[in-house]
Amino acid sequence: MQLGTRWSVGEPVPERLDAAMREAIAKVEADIAHLDTSAWRWTLTWLEARPVAELDDGTIVRQASDGNVTIEEPTS
User: Fold this and answer.
1) Which residue, among 74, 69, 39, has the nearest Cα to 54 in the 3D structure?
2) Which of 9, 39, 40, 49 has the most crowded Cβ, counting Cβ within 10 A?
3) What is the pTM of this model?
């Protein structure tokens, strides 16, 4: 695993992520827009050269080797 970067909800997504990852992250942020996320941050890591973005609430946006992007909701 390679550590990437961190950014706050609502801030620009790192440019090195492709459009599919950016769209998935934007969808997650739209879904939580009604919450106070002022202290929430994303953590970007790279696993086997593929991006994994995890939100402080446990939501994970992951890109597979075929380019498919999935959103994993946090478990209660």
Assistant:
1) 74
2) 9
3) 0.92
